[in-house]
């Protein structure tokens, strides 16, 4: 019998609406979700369907209007801001479009920042992992540069190295390959997949790209703020067909 590990992320009957009364806009409606350890999940859906809202709530960056969100067995929805920040710091690595790199730090210092924040000195194994990541991500000769001296794609790669170096339980990625060329995109997606398979990290990734989603072992489709589909791994061509059908159905 396979052991059932408790979910890393657990959401129950989550609603999120903006505004009040008759002018309230529902962004998410009745979302219930279990994300298992080591699972690589892609979240897809049309523009405005609620993907970013879902990611922000999963990361404890936003509050549900109703319902429960548990991360690593802790009730995110009930915690103080300080406890949430600590929970995020201990468990989540972020790869967001806005990169959130510290402008005064070099690329190398930005990658080491999560260790500093956790008050942890990188071990030999951590150093080897950072070396490997900077090598694969083509950052070796950019390590002493500050973000302003890097291209958008290079900044994104620094953010990816930073999120993976400390090996957080959960990696939350919003269009992680959005600024990257095809070859680098494939490298990043392979890195995410190996983070799940070899390092047992859990990956939650929003993407519009069927090729990116084909690296995942679960595909969640969000439409009109609801989970409209929950699928196992699929080839990119099938995912593309699914998305076209969804958009045609909604038109
Ligand atoms: N701060 C806000 N105030 C009011 N409405 C908002 C706000 N943020 C999001 N919304 C609305 O919530 C819905 C979901 O938005 P969300 O950004 O989650 O969609 P998305 O699927 O990530 O879109 P995209 O793929 O275009 O990034 C949209 O109708 C959006 O207009």
UniProtKB/TrEMBL annotation:
Describe the location of the ABC transporter domain by residue ranges.
11-249
Q: Name one GO cellular component term.
A: plasma membrane
Keywords, alphabetical:
ATP-binding, Nucleotide-binding, Transport
**Pfam families found in the cross-reference section:** ABC_tran (PF00005)
The record's listing under Gene3D superfamilies reads:
P-loop containing nucleotide triphosphate hydrolases (3.40.50.300)
InterPro entries attached here?
A: AAA+_ATPase (IPR003593), ABC_transporter-like_ATP-bd (IPR003439), ABC_transporter-like_CS (IPR017871), ABC_transpr_LolD-like (IPR015854), MacB-like_ATP-bd (IPR017911), P-loop_NTPase (IPR027417)
Per the UniProt record, the source organism is: Branchiibius hedensis
Identification of the protein by name: Putative ABC transport system ATP-binding protein
**Single GO MF annotation:** ATP binding
